[in-house]
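Shipment paperwork, digital attachment
Item: protein structure file
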Amino acid sequence: MFYWLGAVTLAVLYNLWTCIARQAFHEMQKQHVPIWLCFDGFADLVYLLDIGIQFRTGFLHHGLIVCDSKKLCKKYINNKCFIIDIISLVPLDLLQFYIGIQPMLRFPRFLKVYRSVQFMHMYESRTGYPNLFRVANLSHILFLGLHWLAAFYYLISEADDFQGSWTYPKQEGEYTQVTRKYLASLYWSTLILTTIGDSRTPDTNLQ
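Attachment content:
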């Protein structure tokens, strides 16, 4: 179960890291559509298999492990996690056939994060360096937050047509490179969070 939870966690982190980046930085999505489709499909398969595995996962009752398949199914179905797992697989991304490419339609997949939390608790109880693991986990959450803020910063700049001193510069020359877009947005998201009064003043209410 430990290794399976690790695989589910990788699928969850894939969705948390890539969906918002593909939504904000369109080149990432458009230049590698077949690759993203394969990864999306594989992540969804892991989610689906996890439902099957949870139907077969034993539990303790009065100190004894329950292995009866009917009781296991009943316990899982009556658990709120079953509802979360079903909602997390709602195929909203199929709407892209009608409204165009919108990777953030995969947002229900984020609900599966509770399995990642289970994995983190299990890993922390097994590792010989729990404090180091907590620091690494906290650092990862921090970087994930900065990653999302960078994407929001670029989306806001795009919504404002890159006007004003606060937004990402006009897309000319080296500023058209997706790597430059991401790194510059990450820099500004970090700067906005870590400084007070030293960053540029927003020009609009949205900013």
